[in-house]
What we know:
Layout: E1 2-10, E2 20-23, E3 32-35, E4 41-42, E5 46-47, E6 57-64, E7 72-79, E8 117-121, E9 127-134, E10 139-146, E11 152-156, E12 162-166, E13 172-176, E14 188-191
Amino acid sequence: MMLHKAQVTSNTDFLKKGRFLAHCKSISNNEFWVTYVSPYKADFRGGFVAVPDVGSEVLIAATTSEQDKYAVNWYYMGSVYGDRDSDLDTTGELVQEYTRHELPDKEIYKAKDSPDRLLLQDKSGNKVLLSNSSNSEYMSKKAEVQSSLGKTLSLDDGKSDSSMLLNEHGDGIKISSGRTALRGARSIELECPGSQKIISKFSDIELTVVDGREIDIVNASTGDKRDSDDKDSTGHAGKYGNINISSEHNDINLTVYKQDGKVFIDSLGTEGLIQLDSAGDITIWSDKNVNIKSGSNMNFKAEGNINLDAGGSIDINSGERIRVSSDKEIDVKTTGGNVNVDGRQVHLASDKSTKASKIQNLTKISNNYDN
C-alpha cells in the first residue's frame, strides 16, 4: 500500500458518490479521482460523510487491482493538519496562506496541552462541539450545536449547569439545574425583547404552583421601547402597560378556596378608577355582610327604580341633613305599627324643607384595549 499527501482540487462529483479530485506532483501532473472512505456506513440508510473541502491537504492510499496491477485506485484516509509539504505546490495558486493548516477549534488546548474537545464544523461555521475541558481557572463541559449565525442548542454541565436554546441575539429558553443568584434550582427562563405567544389549539393551558411560592403577572412597561410600527385601530401608537384578560365564549372565574381567603382589587393611583361594566346584570352576593365605604361621596343612580329590601331594619344616619324629595308623591306606609316623626319642631306644608340634590351624570370610562 502506498501513502501520499495530496491536495483537493475539486469535490464536485457527477456520480454523487463522494469522490473528489486531488493533485500530488510526486504521483502525476494531472488530477485524479479519490474515493471517499468513512469510519461508519449503514447501507444507504445512514453513515458519516464529511467530504474534504477544496484546498484541503489529505492523506491518500492506493491499491492495485488483482486483474490489472497497473490500475491504481486511490482512497481517502484523512485530512492533514499542522503540516505543509512543498511537494503540493503546483502552480502556487492552490496552496493558500498557512492559516488553512490551523485547527478550526481555537480552544482545543485552552485548558491544557492535550486536546479535550471534539469538533465537527463546516467551512461556514455550523458546528457540533463536545467539550470536556477544564483546569483550576477554566471549565467548559458541554455538548453544543451551533449554526453559522450563532443559533445555539447547548447542554452545559459546567458553571452554567443548564440547557439552553438561543438565537444569535441570546434570546431563548434556559433550563437550569443548579441554583443561581436570582433563581432557585431546576428553573426555566424564557426571555426575548419581542413578543411571546402561547397557543393551545385543542386543549388546556395550565399554570400551577404545587408547594412553591407565588404566581406573579406583572406589566412594568413604560412603552419607551415598544415597536414604533405598533399602531392601534385609530392609528395611534400601540397601548402599553395593560394586563388584559378576556374570554370570547364563556366565563372568567376568580375563586379562592381557603377558609379565610380574600380577593383584592386595588387601584392605588390618586386619580385611579375601578369600574364594573356589564351589558346585563351585576350581582353582588355574600352569605355574610356587604360593606361599602367611600372617603368622599357615595352616589347611587338608576334610570329605573332603586329598591331597598331588608329582612331587618333599614337604618339611615347622617351627620347633617337627610333630604327626601320627589317630583311626584312620597308615600310612607306601615302595615304593622306606628309612623313616628320626632323633632324639636315638625313642620308640615311650611315651605321650609329643601329639595334633595340630584346626582350629576355619571361618566362611563371607555375600555378600548381591544380596539
